[in-house]
Amino acid sequence: MSQLNRLFSVAPMMEWTDRHERFFLRLISRQALLYTEMVTSMAVLHGDRERLLGFNDEEHPVALQLGGSEPEDLAEAARIGEGFGYDEINLNVGCPSDRVQSGRFGACLMKEPDLVAACVEAMQKAVAVPVTVKCRLGVDEQEPEEVLPAFAARMREAGVRSLTIHARKAWLKGLSPKENRTVPPLDYPLVHRIKQEFPELEIIINGGIRTLEETAAQLAHVDGVMMGRAAYETPYELAEVDRRFFGAKTPVKKRGEIVRGFYPYLERRLAEGVPLHAMTRHILGLFQGVAGARAWRRHLSENAVKPGAGISVVEEALSRVDDPVPVAMTEA
């Protein structure tokens, strides 16, 4: 088993978990395992690798999620990812978008466990870092109670030691990718049963988990929790992760501290030509539930897109919010 601690992680999310978002989240939690957006093996092999794979050392621990279905291509992409310094390579067997269906990867691979196994085995031979899989309960008319145990068994045979399960089916026809994140019902008990049937596998649960209370409840049944949209939409939910789940003794940062801790990164990237709004879009939800949150979001949304926008825009937005720290978060 890898030394990576997957007790709490933030899900790979297309258009969301780019390097700016990951650096920002790392200011909130030092321990949460972070994932990239899915990158296809062909993009890694033929695209701008620095743009696709580049990240900051401060992001560790960080995992690269790959999409693809050609074992040799995935093995080479994994080798390249390891060379960039990623701590884990994850294979996407869960994304339900039209693009992945046309490319024969993502959730449609739930129908081809032997191909997934071949991909995983090739990747494992190519790298020394852990190779993991993220899947769904099944797709379309498949019966999850039959498909998921068989899939987990095949992954175990292929040498997978950590399996992340999004606790919903994916409907490849009839539902949009967005609907696939919310419409298919969650089945946490099935994921819990997989852990019982395969105790030697590290089972990480994903899907619909929005709070640390829900996280703690899930950890009574599985080895780790992967939080998705809530980590993006309400990132301050991560403020207590290190203390609650990893035994950290460091005080919880106030929201304003987190924002100002982001300034050096913003300045570096602005100097490289990255527009401010490409980075500040990730911090819009930081003050969710705090007086002035709407003014914060509005000021950033309206002004970060302007030519030449800089740190002063963020500082002005910060002046529009209160920054309390709940008593529960300040207790030793």
What features would you describe in this structure?
With 332 residues, this protein is of the alpha/beta class. It is 44% helix and 13% strand. It contains 17 helices and eight strands. The chain has an eight-stranded parallel barrel, surrounded by four helices. The radius of gyration is 20 Å and the shape is globular.
Secondary-structure map with pairings?
Blueprint: E1 8-10, H1 19-28, E2 33-40, H2 41-46, H3 49-53, E3 62-67, H4 71-84, E4 88-93, H5 98-102, H6 113-126, E5 131-135, H7 144-157, E6 162-166, H8 177-180, H9 188-197, E7 202-206, H10 212-218, E8 224-227, H11 229-233, H12 241-246, H13 255-271, H14 276-280, H15 293-303, H16 311-318, H17 327-330
Parallel strand pairs: 1-2, 1-8, 2-3, 3-4, 4-5, 5-6, 6-7, 7-8
Helix pairs in contact: 1-13, 4-6, 6-7, 13-16, 15-16
